[in-house]
Fold:
Amino acid sequence: MKKLPMFVAASLASVALFSPVSSAQTSSLVAQSTRAGVGAGSLSLISGFAVNAPEGQLRWVLVRGVGPTLASFGVANPLADPTIQIRSSNGTVIATNDNFATAPNLALLNTVSAAVGAFPITNPNEAAVLVGVPAGGYTAQLSGVGATDVRPGLVEVYEFGAVGSGANSQSIAGLAASNPNLSTLATALRLTGLDAVLAAGGPFTVFAPTNAAFTALPSATLNALLADPAALAQVLLFHVASGQVLSSQLTNNQNVTTLRTGARPLVVNLTGGVRIDNSNVIAADVRATNGVVHVINAVLLP
Structure:
């Protein structure tokens, strides 16, 4: 029987390593691993971790949900099909994965996995994400797809240094969750469950209203939307188009079909700037791992 890796050996245990610094305020997570019995739904395993980074900077974090590979280390009847979700401290889903080979940055993910010394995973049912995150608290949730019982599963979290400028390191949902000017949008996505869609699906083009844009809505309209997640979801879908459309690909009077079924198209106006319907684009071409975000200064209503 093969010798268990350090992070697999401790059943129902969590192991964390920290960089050798004297102050807790400047310490940084290096690696954390938790193995436990895992099922579906309320039997999911939730493991919390914190990341320290200077303001305005992101840190690469590799999170792996391991099941079938544990059998090669002598673990009997492990979790058959793990899936993982990463949530920010406010509950927004910022990344999710079922089968690691579908990760949009798979080549980089594999490079980082090798660099941190993680044991190889080859079973297609294993789950893994590599995401760039700002300082803050996060949770990794490990579940079993279609699980009807509890089986051993492993969550691993590795930090791997600063994200270089311009890198596509976050999902669209992750970008919203990590940008203070888009916190209302992140909350709306969480309330409707669309944060998970914009964390895993795509590619998408999202016209993202700022906090000020939501505040500019009549109070009665905003309160009614927040109280009715189904109606709010329809408004949010009116801001999302399938495929990645960069600003250089927009044309004057172009119609953009959104994911809101049966809604009129959005109209692009390039006269004196870039306008989408009644909104101005104030930040264009913010790249994500699963599409692109154009930040706008008004909420678009169907």
Summary: The domain at 172-296 is CATH 2.30.180.10 (FAS1 domain). The first helix runs from residue 6 to 9. DSSP finds eight helices and 16 strands in the chain. The radius of gyration is 21 Å.
